[in-house]
Design brief:
The complex is a heterodimer of chains A (106) and B (165).
Chain A: H1 5-10, H2 12-23, H3 28-34, H4 39-51, E1 55-60, E2 63-68, H5 70-105
Helix pairs in contact in A: 3-4
Chain B: E1 7-12, E2 17-24, H1 28-36, H2 38-44, E3 51-57, E4 64-70, E5 76-87, E6 91-99, E7 105-119, E8 122-131, H3 134-138, H4 142-163
Antiparallel strand pairs in B: 1-2, 2-8, 3-4, 4-5, 5-6, 6-7, 7-8
Helix pairs in contact in B: 1-2
Classes of the chains: A mainly alpha (106), B alpha+beta (165).
Chain lengths: 106, 165
């Protein structure tokens, strides 16, 4: 099943991994070292992040490096911005409704 | 005028909660009515070009509002809200789910908490929306998809008109 992106970001370790990956691509082994985690635990986090496309693997020689997928984060940001605009639009509509009701009461 | 009124929108991804705060240039009882009375809600509670249509609404604890967001093409997207707590002119909470036209809810839903306060004739409304999943929330932006489609369509028409010249 495809992972929920919110669920992926909700975990503090995964947020830390993402933050680190925005600076440089890393192999699972280096991630395990940096976070003082077992290779197994890292693999689990990588799986979640990869499934919701927040990171992408790239083969380099014998190693797999994981990169931060900026595009996916951008999609999420765009969606949030749109949600914000929807609320803004509704509230601007409400401003007009309120002032017309006030007008009628006069 | 609106520029002086506070509007704040934040998402706490870890807490899966959206926080929205807005001030209105009106006294609290009127703003309260605007959020709790069907005939006023339907005048504003959907972002244009969408519009809201409430089929029925019983604003009491355990009561429900069954309403649709109507797309520009006439497509209806139904939602069901159940009021879980009401403190008149101060706070109300509801549980919101998408639904089909026969009132069958699509779980999971989201928990909405509204707080009202007034200072010097300006009423502040704070809304917290807790969502179980983002997938569910993304449906909220259907309006975006449709708005975008409508925009592309008018662009298409514009291009067609221009190319005929």
């Amino acid at each position: 099943m495809k992972q929920d992106i919110f669920q992926a970001i909700a975990d503090p370790t995964r947020r830390a991994i993402l933050t680190l990956l925005t600076i440089q691509a890393l192999t699972p082994n280096v991630m395990a070292e940096k976070f003082d985690m077992s290779r197994q635990a890292v693999s689990k986090h990588i799986k979640v992040l990869h499934e919701c496309e927040l990171i992408k693997p790239e083969q380099s020689g014998r190693e797999i490096y994981y990169h931060f997928n900026e595009k996916k984060m951008q999609e999420l940001d765009n969606w949030i911005a749109q949600l914000r605009r929807n609320w803004e639009t509704q509230f601007n509509q409400l401003d007009k409704v309120l002032s017309s009701i006030k007008e009628q009461k006069k | 005028m609106n520029n002086d009124l506070l509007f704040d929108f934040t998402i706490d991804k870890a807490a899966k909660t959206i926080f929205i705060t807005r001030e209105f240039n009106a006294e609290l009882p009127l703003v309260w009515d605007a959020f709790t009375r069907q005939e006023i809600l339907d005048q504003w509670a959907a972002p244009a070009p969408l519009r809201a249509k409430t089929k029925y609404m019983n604003f009491e604890v355990g009561g429900r509002r069954f309403y649709a967001m109507i797309m520009p093409d006439g497509e209806e997207r139904w939602s069901l809200q159940k009021y879980t707590s009401i403190t008149p002119k101060t706070n109300f909470k509801l549980y919101n789910t998408f639904a089909d036209k026969d009132e069958n809810p699509e779980l999971p839903g989201s928990e909405w908490d509204h707080n009202f306060s007034e200072q010097n004739g300006i009423t502040k409304v704070s809304i917290a929306i807790f969502n179980e999943s983002l997938e569910r929330m993304e449906k909220l932006s259907d309006g975006f998809r449709l708005g975008y489609t409508a925009m592309l369509k008018s662009l298409e028409e514009l291009l067609a008109a221009l190319s005929q010249k």
